[in-house]
Give the backbone structure.
Amino acid sequence: MLQIKNLHANINGKEILKGLDLTVRPGEIHAIMGPNGAGKSTLASVLTGNQAFEVTKGEVTFYGKNLLELSPENRSHEGIFLSFQYPVEIPGVSMVNFMRSALNEHRKYKNLEPLSATDFLRTMREKKELVEMDNKLANRSVNEGFSGGEKKRNEIFQMAMLDPRLSILDETDSGLDIDALRIVANGVNKLKRPDNASIVITHYQRLLDYIVPDFVHVLYNGRIVKSGGKELAYELEERGYDWIKKEVEEAP
Amino acid sequence: MSSNILDQVTQSDYKYGFTTDIETDIIPIGLSEEVVRLISAKKNEPEWMLEFRLKAYRHWLTMKLPTWAHLTIPDIDYQSIAYYAAPRKNAPQSLDEVDPELLKTFEKLGIPLEERMSLSGMAVDAVMDSVSVKTTFKDSLAEMGIIFCSFSEAVEHHPDLVQKYMSSVVPYTDNFFATLNCAVFSDGSFVYIPKGVRCPMELSTYFRINAINTGQFERTLIIADEDSYVSYLEGCTAPMRDENQLHAAIVEIVAMKNAQVKYSTVQNWYPGDKNGKGGIYNFVTKRGICKGDNSKISWTQVETGSAITWKYPSCILLGDNSSAEFYSVAVTNHHQQADTGTKMLHIGKNTSSHILSKGISAGQSHNSYRGLVRINPKAENARNFSQCDSLLLGDKCGAHTFPYLEVNNDSAIVEHEATTSKINEDQIFYCNQRGISTENAVGLIVNGYAKEVLNQLPMEFAVEAQKLLQITLEGSVG
């Protein structure tokens, strides 16, 4: 579904991604790991069309479409979802209004009628249960005054609502205690189907105990330098990243 | 990055910018005692009204344009304005006699002038340029003793009420623009709600400027007698023109014992183009007096139009236990300037006032809140709560807050809160990532921000105002 070839990207003139390749097929879970500053979050931003980043080279296709030509909202409509590392607060905008606007713009893109209020609220209720989200949160403004764990849970709730084909989880485990981590991971696992895929960006192996990846990639210095199965994550946990850095630097 | 995106600002269409091609009776431009007499003569006014106008005109000659507002007001040449313009087919007795062009105009604006077409339970006084075109539901309201008519008709048929209350809240010497209005005012609406009557429908006036080079100077007078209630709405639009047009109105409200008046405005005069060319200069004096005990006046305004807005709907809290509210959303985009707020003058005992002001600035605009809360020495146990919030879109606009407090009685409790916030790129991107377009994201955020004020508006108006906020800000943030 997703093909990234030789992707280069800058922020403020500084090159962060330096020729990244990645292929994701339906039904797969890819974990992207790597030291700080390797370009993990940049990859998430570039895939979702954050204008702070400039793509200088390479191509990205999503189901055959040139993703880089699409606006951020159209990428969302095409089924790409990002669970933000730092979800933004939007005061005054209720979760209900926010989700309803989002869902209806998705439906409009697919030439569907807007959802009736009853159907919408029913969907909200179902998906809330999936991530064990408090009813009260849904009536509050988007992320306003939410705790770290509530914000992450809210991301997974929105993911459930929008039912993406490709979800990108950017450091979803950061700032979560073990219970919150379990709830969030359960949500993600319940949403997994043979026709959708996930890219899980994480610094630690911890999350991968709950969300089991098919592939683990190590991102270092703007490139994927090593790929393997889930056992690679354990090796990284044990040995750190230094041996990989060394391998890369010693390579001809 | 943000300025980059802001440069992509596009001008949204002002959808009320059309002109009506209609025969207009317009007097030559210029202002003099002759012109004041001519206006009075055109309207067949009684001698006392002419005297009032002349008194005001002579006083106006001694006055200077106030300079305290945070506005850059270009020189206005008062001799280049026509002070009276009226559609030629005037004073129709029934709808059949109203010029079809006029009917079409108001239809286009969404203002129902046919009573059987009106499902919203709203009575309308439609004013084009200097005259009232049509007032609906006049007869059925009259059965309850309610007077709802044009100001000119009130002068003719209810001179006692007009003489008693006109200028009793805003004296003819009040300020430069109010005094000018007293000299040359054309038409407007008049409302009288008798004792113990609860007005069964929303009353509304719709003001439309059509003629070129004219100023609009209307005045509205609302009197709510003891134990009565009325909700009143005001809307306004104007064609898109390159030159500026002057609008200087007066609204006076009198609330007697136990009476309650709710006054809502959606101000959408032509704001000028994105380069700041054209637009209405909106200099308005609005004031109410809570004359009797337990009376209440509530102002709600949504200000989106005009090149310059200078407007402070105020309240004199004279009666004991009287209360007043001011809810405002003021939006400025491109080169618009707004200096708006309120004055709450506490005189009676146990009086209370509540101010909620939400400013939204975009483009290169300037948006100021200016408010005065004065507690007189004898105003025991007065209460005031003021909240003034500013929302900025982009980094080329300005938001300013000028709160003035004068507390002369120790028993008063006066509170003031102010916040400034910004819509940032991260919020927009977050919405985009969920599939919400930038236009809709700004609309969601702005409407969420203004919610508390919009909730004060009558239903039909609230929906309209929500759309208006979104249209006004279209393309102002990337």
